[in-house]
């Protein structure tokens, strides 16, 4: 009997380890299939868009023989399935081609511009979460009151107003009229080239370099576009928080807590919000992913040198390598954040395991 118990425990540990390995394998397979599908979608987009990438390289006055040679060098004379295989094999090695606009490898350009978009989306998500969650909780607690109506109106406006119009109005009011915010761009000219890029995140790099002046100037430039993006995140997060809290406040454990004499504050913020926080993780992660992919118009309005501006300029210049590379990176970021939020949901809620 003394020997059987350790053997049984070893068998249980082995079964648990096997389940974990199977779960990891399933996750890796799902991620691989999703990313291959995303690559296929971007490849089809590059072939469907009525833009000739050869003309973007040689120009519309090039001789036919030059046009044919460049077309063959780019592999566009091959069958479509062979083109996709070559495209997939290149991006798996990190080769997204060379940008016609900047003459740099596309991956180098993405590594340069993506941190600015990441910085802006992070500020927007922080604002949307720190303000949207309390607003959603208060709206649920004060259901059908004036406060609830105001929160719902704020969310409705956030869904309805075009982001480029809101950005233009923010610049008009806070920059042009009131002079409370600095102008477009990521940094004043006086602070350019003071900080050596390490992470690409200017706020982080300025702290690493010990340059508080650069940090505060960069933060002041990021606040207005970050708040514009954050407002749309706030609208989504506050609405979902309200919905989750209404569901939790109607549960029997809330009634039991009130019968036991617990304070309303403890019931709301410690019990109801704690259970509502599990699905909120997914909501916040998806909101973050939406800001990463939806910052194109905001970056254009505020002249923010991020991936959205890079994508817009590349599209206007018919630089399809850059367009497809940036689209693939944004899509991959969305997929990864979605999968990570699903993992976090499973870790936080044992009922889903």
TrEMBL record:
Q: How does it sit in the membrane?
A: Multi-pass membrane protein
Q: What is its main location?
A: membrane
For this protein, the record's InterPro entries field holds: BPD_transp_1_N, MetI-like, MetI-like_sf
Q: Which domain of life is it from?
A: Bacteria
UniProt entry tagged with the keyword Transcription: no
Q: Name one Pfam family in it.
A: BPD_transp_1_N
Location of this chain's protein in the cell? Cell membrane
GO MF annotation list: dipeptide transmembrane transporter activity
- Which residue range or ranges hold the ABC transmembrane type-1 domain? 114-341
The UniProt transmembrane annotation reads: 20-45, 120-141, 153-176, 214-237, 272-291, 322-345
Which CDD domains does its entry note? TM_PBP2
Question: Is the Cell membrane keyword given for this protein?
Answer: yes
Which controlled-vocabulary keywords does the entry list? Cell membrane, Membrane, Transmembrane, Transmembrane helix, Transport
Of the GO CC terms on this record, one is: plasma membrane
Please give the family membership noted in the entry: Belongs to the binding-protein-dependent transport system permease family.
Name it.
ABC transporter permease
